[in-house]
Design goal:
It is built from two helices and six strands; from the N terminus they run αββββββα. With 97 residues, the chain is mainly beta.
Length: 97
């Protein structure tokens, strides 16, 4: 998935293919991580989670990360991380001025 919006991301995505757990208001589920960056992730899942819903994504590589769902299209879930790691990355990438 590549488009102009993807090219404006503040963090580089790394392609991956591992499982992660998602905790959200309706319970827990497992998803496959398609790609991930310091500020978000794209996941393949059978469960549609509402845009704007808060989640916790847990992976072996990054541990537990708080986030919010920003997209769900064709079984792919887009998550923007809302934790201190994402905030610190965004602050480093914002030009001073």
């Amino acid at each position: 998935m590549s488009n102009d919006a993807d090219n404006k991301r503040s963090a580089t995505r790394a392609a991956t293919n591992h499982l992660a757990g998602i905790q959200y208001r309706r319970g827990n589920l497992t998803a496959r991580v398609i790609d991930m960056s310091m500020t978000g992730a794209r996941l393949a899942t059978h469960e549609q989670i509402a845009i704007g819903e808060k989640i916790v994504l847990t992976t072996v590589r990054m541990g537990a990360r708080a986030g919010v769902v920003v997209r769900f299209v064709d079984g792919e879930l887009g998550v923007r991380f809302t934790d201190e790691i994402a905030a610190a990355h965004e602050a480093r990438m914002t030009p001073a001025g």
